[in-house]
Amino acid sequence: MEKLNVKIEHVFHSCFIVETENYQLVFDYYKGDISLKDKKTIVFSTHGHEDHYNTDIFKWQDNIRDIDYVLSSDINIEDNNNRIYSMDPYNNLDLDNVNIKTFGSTDLGVSFLVNVDNVNIFHAGDLNWWYWDDDTIEEKVSMENSFKGEIEKIKGLDIDIAFFPVDPRLKSSFNLGGEYFIKEIKPKYFLPMHFGDNFNVTSDFIHKTKGNTSEIIELNHKNQVLVL
Asked: Which one of 53, 59, 128, 159 has the largest count of C-beta atoms within 10 Å of its C-beta?
C-alpha cells in the first residue's frame, strides 16, 4: 500500500488526530486524553451530538496560536470568532492550502472530505447504514435508499483515508454501511470508528469484510498511533 506520510492517533470513539507535514487536524472530539502540538490546526465537528462535539475544543486556542474550527451548521455558536466556520452539506471551503468539502449524513450534520498536503481524508460523522432491528420495513427501506444515495454522491472521488462508523449496537448488521462504503468508494485505508470501548468490533469487521482492495486498520486501544 502506498505510504502517505501521515500520522494518525485514534483518541476515542470517532475522534482522530491526523498529522501531515504542515497541519494537525482533529475530528469529532468529545472526550478522552488528547495532546496537541502548537502546529497549524483545524478542528472539525461533524454535528452536535454529545458523542461528537464538546465545547472544550475552544479551550485549545489558549495553547495553539494558529487554530481554526470547522463545524456543521447544526451546531449553534454564539461567538463572533472569525476562526470558526459553519458548513452546510454540499459546501466547499478553502482554508489556506486545505480544501474542505461537505457531504450529507443519514443522521445529523455533515460528513467531511478534506484535501491536505495532497492527502484526501474522509470523516463520515454519523453517515452510516443505520439498520436497526426494531425499525419498520418502511424505515429500513428509507434508510437504505438514503444511505446509498449519499454514497452515490461520493463515488468516483479518490479517498486515501476513511473514518467510518462500525457500530456494535447494530448487532449482526454492524458491517453493512462500512462494507458497502468500501465496495463502492475503495479508500486506500479504512479506519473503523463509533464503537466506544468495544474495540473487538474492529477485528470482527476485518474478518467479515473480505475480498476488497482497501486496507482495514484494526484498532485495539485508546490513543493508538499509526503511521500510514
From this structure: 128
Residue 221, burial from CB neighbour count under 10 angstroms (0-12, 13-18, 19+): exposed
Q: Which residues of 131-183 form beta strands (DSSP E)?
A: 161-165
CA distances from 184 to 136, 152, 165, 225 (A): 26, 8, 16, 27
Q: pLDDT 10s digit of each residue in the chain, 228 long?
A: 678 999 999 999 999 999 999 999 999 999 999 999 999 999 999 999 999 999 999 999 999 999 999 999 999 987 777 799 999 999 999 999 999 999 999 999 999 999 999 999 999 999 999 999 999 999 999 999 999 999 999 999 999 999 999 999 999 999 999 999 999 999 999 999 999 999 999 999 999 997 788 999 999 999 999 999
Helix or strand (DSSP H, E) at 141: helix 137-154
Yes or no: say if 110 and 89 are a contact pair by the CB < 8 Å rule: yes
Report d(CA 218, CA 204) in Å as an integer: 9
Measure Cα distances from 76 to 86, 87, 106 in Å: 9, 11, 20
CA 35 to CA 115: how far, in whole Å? 23
Q: Which residues touch 213 (CB under 8 Å, ≥6 apart)?
A: 186
CA distance 7 to 31: 20
